[in-house]
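Why should sequence recovery work at all? Because a backbone constrains its sequence more than one might expect. Tight turns favour small or flexible residues, buried strands favour hydrophobic ones, and helices have their own preferences. The token representation captures these environments compactly. In the example below, the structure is given first.
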């Protein structure tokens, strides 16, 4: 939007700086025995936009400069060239150029200082300035360019131009958390390309918070990870709590901040983009005062043949605990054997008691280990633990 109050001695133009694309020509050929004969093939051979020797591929070897403003996506770097030209035949003094990028909630100065000194501009001369800004907000952006100057007659003048553009969301990131009995946290992440062209994901990493360490392995997608429009990549991250996080239940409940995702990609013309999510939050599991973990259990067991399981009982509250352990009915599929109840010595905060116990499978298939009950002898509080683990019961003899 130009100022139309009067004709100015200077003109202002803004051009967005983007990488060129490959020009794609329409290759239309024919067999020499067809009606057009060799005329169409002769046109292909004389067309400078079509590579010689491979005329029917449609891929050109000439670079095409941007023909429009194009799309701008969140995380990319917005670059443009501001050109001020002296259209008059006289010397213009005190030329100042300022540029501000205006969003819905803030204004970012990109060019020009309040106390900057103006420059002289000869007749027909230019002032060219390149500005860059990493786009961190979606929605409407307005680039405001202001020019002030003093004419040879001593008259001061100024004008402004506004360039409006939209910043769109490039990726759709969805997350889901899984809490385990061993305090490990699994984060499932889906990254979908919602741009208009293919992108290459250079990095999709999880920066763990101070409560966890990332135990994930290298990505299975390899160094070249091309994602076409509307395609999705699934990632799974495993996080383990640090030793100081495991000390008490309150510490584990406070460990709701898991970390943030750092995603880096390049477009099909090589432009780089980067997107960082906010801190990802999980719902902390409710452990109570005691945490029961399965330390050792076989994957496959034989029907009606006893097997052993190792359980750990950890005090994660702020006081010492006197516990009474008993095993109740396992549901008829897997039953406990041996001693069915016992006292556990006093457990201090963070201390664990480990027991190796025996069970007998009575039904084939995938069976669930359950039926553990703990009683706090001081508060008379009872804790029942179901679905501790699963084993596959088979009738085949195991070696």
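From this structural description, the recovered sequence reads:
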């Amino acid at each position: 939007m130009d100022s139309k109050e009067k004709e100015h001695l200077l003109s202002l133009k803004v051009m967005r700086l983007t990488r060129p694309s490959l020009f794609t020509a329409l290759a239309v050929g024919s067999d020499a025995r067809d009606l057009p004969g060799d005329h169409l093939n002769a046109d292909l051979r004389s067309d400078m936009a079509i590579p010689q020797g491979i005329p029917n591929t449609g891929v050109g070897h000439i670079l095409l400069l941007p023909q429009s403003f194009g799309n701008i996506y969140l995380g990319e770097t917005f670059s443009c060239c501001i050109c001020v030209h002296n259209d008059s035949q006289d010397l213009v003094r005190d030329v100042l150029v300022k540029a501000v990028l205006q969003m819905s909630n803030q204004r970012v100065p990109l060019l020009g200082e309040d106390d900057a000194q103006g420059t002289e501009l000869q007749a027909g001369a230019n002032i060219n300035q390149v500005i860059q800004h990493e786009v961190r907000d979606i929605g409407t952006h307005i680039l405001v360019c202001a020019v002030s100057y003093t004419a040879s007659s001593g008259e001061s003048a100024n004008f402004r131009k506004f360039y409006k553009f939209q910043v769109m969301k490039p990726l759709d990131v969805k997350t889901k958390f899984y809490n385990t009995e061993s305090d490990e946290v699994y984060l499932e992440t889906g990254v979908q390309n919602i741009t208009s062209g293919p992108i290459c994901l250079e990095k999709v990493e999880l920066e763990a918070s101070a409560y966890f360490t990332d135990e994930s392995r290298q990505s299975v997608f390899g160094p070249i990870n091309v994602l076409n429009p509307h395609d999705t990549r699934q990632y799974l991250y495993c996080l383990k709590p640090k030793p100081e996080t495991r000390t008490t239940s309150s510490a584990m409940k406070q460990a709701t901040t898991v970390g943030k995702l750092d995603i880096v990609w390049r477009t099909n013309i090589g432009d780089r983009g980067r997107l960082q999510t906010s801190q990802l939050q999980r719902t902390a599991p409710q452990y109570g005062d005691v945490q029961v973990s399965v330390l050792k259990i076989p994957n496959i067991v034989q029907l009606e043949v006893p097997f052993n399981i190792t359980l750990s009982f950890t005090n994660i509250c702020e006081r010492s605990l006197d516990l009474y352990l008993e095993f109740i009915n396992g549901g008829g599929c897997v039953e406990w054997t041996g001693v069915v109840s016992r006292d556990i010595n006093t457990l201090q905060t963070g201390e664990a008691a480990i027991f190796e116990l025996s069970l007998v499978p009575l039904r084939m298939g995938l069976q669930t280990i359950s039926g553990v009950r703990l009683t706090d002898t001081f508060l008379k509080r009872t804790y029942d633990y179901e679905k501790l683990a699963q084993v596959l019961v088979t009738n085949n003899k195991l070696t």
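A few observations help interpret the result. The chain has a mean pLDDT of 84.
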